[in-house]
Amino acid sequence: MTKIGIILGSTRPGRNGEAVAKWVYDVAAKRTDAEFELVDLLDYNLPHLDEAIPPSMGQYSQPHTIEWAKKIDSFDGFVFVTPEYNHSTSGALKNAIDFLFKEWNNKAVGFVGYGSIGGARAVEHLRLIAGELMLADVRAQVLLSLATDFENYSTFLPSERQEQALATVLDQTVSWSKALETVRKAA
């Protein structure tokens, strides 16, 4: 069965991302075309990148990197749930991505952003990063506005329209993850 990791990309106290990631997981868990797992960066306690050798060499030395690599390697695709901080993604998510290389390769990725303009700029930055890591980013995306998809900028209340957008992201991510299976096997 195709496995998709839903990566919660914020570690900030009081983060809105926890409610968003749980919503993504709850919607995804109703599906039968893949298995989904919520991956919270808080559970991995990754410091700032502390590997002496570049990740593309695959010679990890730190126990936290090895644990993170095993988790990411276990998935066929991902949905990144990202806040937008200062026109980009969170430092925590970028750092977690930067720890690894081959574990990301030849897999699909979809995006759920949230912020003042729905996290659009964070998603655009992640698309550039995905290309370098040989992650195939799907076209559809979910952009959640703090003004319209949250009450008082903090209580998450997604509309039916957003659930439909999420379904499209999940459809594309699962489909591309399955299609890339032969590429992963050949690599």
Automatic annotation (TrEMBL):
<protein>
    <submittedName>
        <fullName>NAD(P)H-dependent oxidoreductase</fullName>
    </submittedName>
</protein>
<dbReference type="Pfam" id="PF03358">
    <property type="entry name" value="FMN_red"/>
</dbReference>
<feature type="domain" description="NADPH-dependent FMN reductase-like">
    <location>
        <begin position="2"/>
        <end position="148"/>
    </location>
</feature>
<dbReference type="InterPro" id="IPR005025">
    <property type="entry name" value="FMN_Rdtase-like_dom"/>
</dbReference>
<dbReference type="InterPro" id="IPR050712">
    <property type="entry name" value="NAD(P)H-dep_reductase"/>
</dbReference>
<dbReference type="InterPro" id="IPR029039">
    <property type="entry name" value="Flavoprotein-like_sf"/>
</dbReference>
